[in-house]
Amino acid sequence: MILTTASVSGHRGNPHLGATAHAAAKGGVIAMSRQFAAEGASLGIRSNTISPGAVITPGLIAALTPEYRQQMEDLHPIGRAGRPEDIAYCALYLVSDEASWVTGADFVLDGGLSSIT
């Protein structure tokens, strides 16, 4: 099982980030994971990607004013930004036997933000 981490930036642009290289790299990670799935399937190798949106970590908290953090969280249909455990639970599923038929997939974990933007 190969599990890679990309980003929602690999799917869509953000005029406020100024992160062209980041977006290109994460798009490449998604494509690479799909290619691994195609090449590895006959060998019993599964490959999937997790593409998180904004996840509240100590580094992100330090970089945001409380007002901007609230604005960012309010954008999400689910009512909040992600938490590290949101990503961990998805990863746990993907590496488990319960996901034995899942390969070549990219899981966007962004609290529904990409469904409305």
Tell me what you see in this structure.
The protein has a single domain (2-116), classed as Rossmann fold (3-Layer(aba) Sandwich). The chain has a three-stranded parallel β-sheet with strand order 1-2-3, sandwiched between helices. It has five helices and three strands, in the order E-H-E-H-H-H-E-H. The model has no long low-confidence stretch (mean pLDDT 93). The protein is α/β, with parallel strands linked by helices and 117 residues long.
Brief account:
By secondary structure, this protein is of the alpha/beta class.
| Sheet/helix structural class | alpha/beta
How far the N terminus sits from the C terminus, by CA atoms, comes to 32 Å
CATH topology: Rossmann fold
Low-confidence stretches: none
CATH class: Alpha Beta
**Largest sheet properties:** 3 strands, parallel
Query: Shape from CA axes?
Result: globular
Order of neighbouring strands in the sheet with most strands: 1-2-3
Give the name of the CATH architecture. 3-Layer(aba) Sandwich
The radius of gyration computed from the alpha-carbon positions, rounded to a whole number of angstroms, is 15 Å
Question: Into how many domains do the coordinates divide?
Answer: 1
Q: Please report the number of helical segments.
A: 5
CATH superfamily: NAD(P)-binding Rossmann-like Domain
By DSSP, the count of extended strands is 3
Overall pLDDT: 93
Q: What is the ordering of alpha helices and beta strands?
A: EHEHHHEH
Secondary structure layout plus pairing:
Blueprint: E1 2-5, H1 20-40, E2 47-52, H2 58-63, H3 66-75, H4 84-94, E3 106-109, H5 113-116
